Each structure stands twice: as C-alpha cells, then as structure tokens.
Amino acid sequence: MASRPLFILYLSLILFVYLLIVTFYYLNDTLPTPLPVEIKPTNEEIFALQDNVRIPFRTKMECDGYNEFRGIPFEQLWFWPSVRIFIGIWSVADKYEIRHLIRTLNLKQRRNLAGDIVDFKFILGIPSDNNPELKLKLKAENDTYGDLVMLDMVENMNNGKGYYYWKWIAEQLDTTRYDYVSKVDDDSFIHFQNLALNLRPLTRGHLYYGNKSPHSFFIRGTIEVLSVDLAHLIASFPFKKREWNGPEDVQLGAFLNKHAKSLNTIGENCLIFTDPRIRKVRRKMWRPWASPNSIAIHWLKDIRAWKGVIDLYFSDDN
Questions:
Q1: Which key words tag this protein in UniProt (predicted)?
Q2: What distances in angstroms separate CA 299 from CA 16, 54, 90, 270, 305, one per listed residue?
Q3: CATH number of this structure's domain 44-313, picked from the four choices 3.40.50.12780, 3.40.47.10, 3.40.50.720, 3.90.550.10
C-alpha cells in the first residue's frame, strides 16, 4: 500500500517536468526574438553621409500613408475641413543658429498654408550652467522674435521635460485656439501643409499620432501629435518621477496607455521618417526617398544638412 502514494508522487513529478519542457519550447517558438541594442552613430558620422548629397526624391513614396491606406488619396485631403495645430520645437539654449534657420523656414511655410493654422514656439529648459552671457542672448532672441518658452525646470531631455511641456500646453497656452498640439525635435523638418492635410480627416479627441514603433505602444519623439484633451489629461496628474524619467517618447506612451480612458493611437510610419541619406548608420524609421507628400524628415543634426531640405521644399522651382 505504501508503494502506491510513492508511484503517484513519481508520476506527478514526471508530469510536472514534462509541462515545464513543453512550456519552455512553446514560449521559445512564439515570443519575438529581442532586437539587438542599436548603437547610435555620432553626429560626425551622420553628417559625412549628408554633406553635399541631395536627398533622394520621387513623386510618390514606396509605401502608403495612413489616410491613403484607408482609401483617402492625398488629393482628396484638400476637401476636408482645415485644422489648427500648435507645434512645440524642443531646443536647448545654445542652439541659436538652428533655431534661426527653422524659424525662417517655418514662417515661410505659415504664409503659404491653405486655410490651416500652424503656430510654433521653441521649448527650452533653464540652462544648467547659469551663464550670464547665455541668459542675455536668450533674452535678446526672445525680445526680437517672441517665440521662446522657458519651462520651469532645468534643461533635460529625458528626466521630466515631457511632463512639464504638456503641463505648460494645458495651463499656459490658449488651447481653445487649436485642435492638436505637438512636440517636435529640432533636428526634424516638419512640412506644415502636409501635416495639416493628413490630420484633417482624423478625430479631434483622444488622438495620439506619429511614427509608431512596431509592436510597441509609443509614438517616436520625432513628432508626437496629441489632441488637446490629452494634454489636459497629463496636466491633471501630479509629476511622478518614476512615470517621466526615461526616454520621453516611451514615457509619454506609457502614461497615455495607463491613464487615458480612450486612446486613438495612429501610426504614420510612411510619411514620417529618418533622412534617406543616412541609411548606412541609421535604419530605424528609414525610407529610401522623400516625396512632395512627406510630413517629417528626421536626423538633420548639423545645420548644413538642412540644405537638402531647402533644395527640395523651398527652392524657387518647388
């Protein structure tokens, strides 16, 4: 009689080991293989590929944008109601030259908009080095152009700037004037009219729009577009370091997925992309060429790299 419980124990142990083995092989076959960590190239490596090289350009992308995929050709976007957009361009205090170039290009774009409204400001944190000369230069720049916003925090990219930016949007910006608010990197060219056109058919509420990381939950930081209600949602929560310390785009996505009762996440992965010239060092978000319908070109980290954008979208021939 004593051998029967022992037999049952052995049988249970064998069954348990079998289940462990089956579970291991099932997970090994079904879970995605982790991608290798991408080593970011230096700015010098990037610019070496951009210097005196034209951005490849064709009349149509090799892929379909979000609206085109849904059956709305680009030409039909002009017939949808116009939109109002605010763009906050993240910058740092000493980047005077790039701000001046972006400002010049953006003001020209604004004059050519067809019914849409796109406003912009440069978003900075407080410089950490307490340089009196730097403060005077920033004051002179803002007195001249009136387009600098100094957030109430020490300058950083990934330690809370995202929270304080969206809080500033909700509390200091007259959001009744806009349908959408966005964050943009200062190494990104944004085509104002194409952005507005592609937002026209979309919802004005609970929208989270941009280039979406595949198999993930967040929009990449090249350009993040939110409907106004989501900015107010962020501002309604107190700052928590654990929620906002880390890559700002990842943290924003995590926050919205956790706290938004409804979230319309739309990936515009065809028309928002990395500079086609730098494929050798940056494949993430890469597209082989730009087109007249492109929304954003990212990784223009040297001011001279912007010449390719100017040649495409601001020359007398275009």
A1: Glycosyltransferase, Golgi apparatus, Membrane, Signal-anchor, Transferase, Transmembrane, Transmembrane helix
A2: 53, 15, 14, 16, 9
A3: 3.90.550.10
**Greatest Cα-to-Cα distance within the chain, rounded to the nearest angstrom:** 98
- Whether this prediction's pTM lies above 0.70 is answered by yes
Q: Tell me how many degrees the CA angle 199-301-162 measures, rounded to the nearest 5.
A: 55
Interval 69-119: pLDDT, tens: 999 999 999 999 999 999 999 999 999 999 999 999 999 999 999 999 999
Tokens representing 310? 């100017």
In whole angstroms, give the CA distance from residue 8 to residue 6: 5
What are the Cα distances from residue 276, in Å, to 45, 126, 296, 297? 14, 34, 12, 8
What residue segments make up the domains of the chain, in order of their start? 1-31, 44-313
Q: What 3-state DSSP class applies to 214?
A: coil
Residues 265 and 219: beta-carbon distance below 8 Å:
yes
